[in-house]
From TrEMBL:
GO term, biological process aspect, one: methylation
GO terms, molecular function: O-methyltransferase activity; protein dimerization activity
PROSITE patterns associated with the record: SAM_OMT_II
Domain O-methyltransferase C-terminal: 148-243
InterPro entries assigned to the protein according to its UniProt record, in alphabetical order: COMT-like (IPR016461), COMT_C (IPR001077), COMT_dimerisation (IPR012967), SAM-dependent_MTases_sf (IPR029063), WH-like_DNA-bd_sf (IPR036388), WH_DNA-bd_sf (IPR036390)
Gene3D superfamilies from the UniProt entry: Vaccinia Virus protein VP39, Winged helix-like DNA-binding domain superfamily/Winged helix DNA-binding domain
Highest classification ranks of the organism: Eukaryota, Viridiplantae, Streptophyta, Embryophyta, Tracheophyta
Protein's recorded name: Uncharacterized protein
Keyword set, alphabetical order: Methyltransferase, S-adenosyl-L-methionine, Transferase
UniProt cross-references to SUPFAM superfamilies, sorted A to Z: S-adenosyl-L-methionine-dependent methyltransferases (SSF53335), Winged helix' DNA-binding domain (SSF46785)
A Pfam family: Dimerisation
Length: 257
């Protein structure tokens, strides 16, 4: 029996609907892998990784998991492998072994492996509870359900959820602020490496550039270093640029405003 085109279309629509509905599990699994230190643990073995490497008494990662939850680790590792975060193999004696993929290489705290700073902080700041919770208030924001304490309509769903914007929240949580800056800085370095390697001609004929909201100056610093003819300026809030070390702005073509 040959399925009709309408039936095939319905099946494909169902698959896409399930994927959209459940895709958040991939993000949460990625966050969990980073918080448990799984990419670092696999890298540290220097051989094919077995679960016993993770829970051995001498493993620095053993403390991240209580003993009652360890039986569930193989199932979680299989899910990580299914999503492509790590790779799964079977050894000659039938043991499950794991290795890094290009994706999980980017989560290792070792610049010699990545060629750039680990993107672990980037992952964590985009999967942390405040960000996810704000996204869950999107329909409330559209409907104007900003809560009884709201004096004016919230500009963004984040403010609907917390009564303040993300920058205000991070000012009260220095560790989160540091993680956010580290994550954006490492992401910027990786993306700009691609841009400057593959599309460097876009900077031809440019004599000056202002990075508005440039954070700690990662992007401007990379551009100024690669293209000395471009005078780069970083424009951001005083509390942001005050964290830039004096030595970081010594390039003659980089100015912090």
């Amino acid at each position: 029996m040959v399925a009709s085109s309408a039936s095939l279309e319905l099946q494909q629509a169902y698959v896409e609907l399930c994927n959209l509905t459940l895709c958040y599990l991939k993000s949460m699994a990625l966050q969990c892998a980073v918080e448990l230190g799984i990419p670092n643990a696999i890298h540290a073995t220097a051989v094919l990784f077995k679960l016993e490497h993770f829970i051995t008494p001498v493993s620095p990662y053993r403390r991240t998991m209580i003993i009652q939850r360890r039986p569930y680790l193989p199932r979680f590792m299989r899910y990580l492998a299914m999503t492509g975060i790590i790779a799964h193999d079977t050894s000659a004696i039938g043991e499950d072994v794991y290795r890094l993929t290009p994706l999980s290489h980017l989560l290792v705290d070792d610049v010699l492996v990545n060629g750039c700073t680990s993107l672990a902080s980037f992952v964590l700041t985009h999967t942390w509870k405040p960000t996810v919770t704000a996204a869950m208030h999107l329909s409330d924001w559209f409907k104007g359900d900003d809560g009884p304490a709201a004096l004016v309509p919230a500009e963004m769903p984040f403010k609907t959820a917390y009564g303040m914007d993300m920058w205000e929240l991070m000012r009260g949580h220095p560790k989160l602020n540091d993680a956010f800056n580290a994550g954006m800085g490492s992401n910027t370095k990786l993306v700009l490496d691609f841009v400057m390697t593959k599309c460097g001609e876009v900077f031809d004929g440019i004599s000056s550039l202002i990075d508005v909201g440039g954070g700690n100056g990662s992007a401007a610093r990379a551009i100024a270093g690669a293209f000395p003819h471009v005078k780069c300026s970083v424009l951001d809030l005083p509390n942001v640029i005050s964290d830039i070390e004096p030595g970081e702005a010594r390039l003659s073509t980089l100015q912090v405003i």
